[in-house]
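Box S2. Input/output pair 1.
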Amino acid sequence: MRISLITAIMLVSSAANAQQQPSIQVPVPNIPGITTPSQPQQRPYYPPAFIISGILLIIAAIMVLFVGAGGRIHQREIVATSPL
C-alpha cells in the first residue's frame, strides 16, 4: 500500500509539471536607486538593542517581585456598637 501511494503521488506530480502554464515576463527598466540598490546594503548592528531590551526585562522582573509588597498593613477592626 505504501509503495503504491508514493507511486501515485509521483505520477500526479509529474502530470501536473507537464501541464504548467508558460509564465509572462514583464521587462522592468533599470533605474538606479529604485529597481537596483544604489550601494551595497549594510547589515544592521543589533547588540545595543539586545542589551537595552535585556536591561528592561530585568527591571520589569524586579518590579513584578514588588507588586503588592506595600499593601500588607494590618488595620484594627472597628466593631460598631449601639448604646443600650
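Box S3. Input/output pair 2.
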Amino acid sequence: MKKLLILIFVAAAGLVVYNLTTSGELTLIPSFGLSDEERDVKALEDRLAAARKEVAQAQRMAGLSGIDSTSNVEAARRTAEQVDRELRKLRKRLSSDAALRRADRLADTVKQFLSEVR
C-alpha cells in the first residue's frame, strides 16, 4: 500500500513538472494549448511579470543596502508602458473571447502596476 501511494505521488509530481515545462502553467491536469492570440497576450504577461520582479528586486536592494535603485524602477515602468501600448495594438486584432478576457485582465494589471510605480 505504501509503495502504491509513493508511486501515485511520484507520477503526479512528474505530471506537474511536465505541464510546467511544456505549457508554463503549474497544473496537474494538462490543459489544451493556447491559441496564437492567447500566446501573444501571454508573452506580454510574461514581460510585465519580469518588470514586476525587477521592481521588487530594486526595492529589496534599496532596503538592504540603501542603494539608489530609481533607474531600475524607471526601466520597469517604461517596460510596463511599452507592454500597455503593445496590448492596445494587440486588442484591436484579437477575436477569441478567451484572448480578450486575458487581455482585459492584463490591462487591469498593467494599470495597477503603473499606478504603484508612479
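Caption for Box S3: The chain has a mean pLDDT of 88. The chain is about 80% helix and 0% strand.
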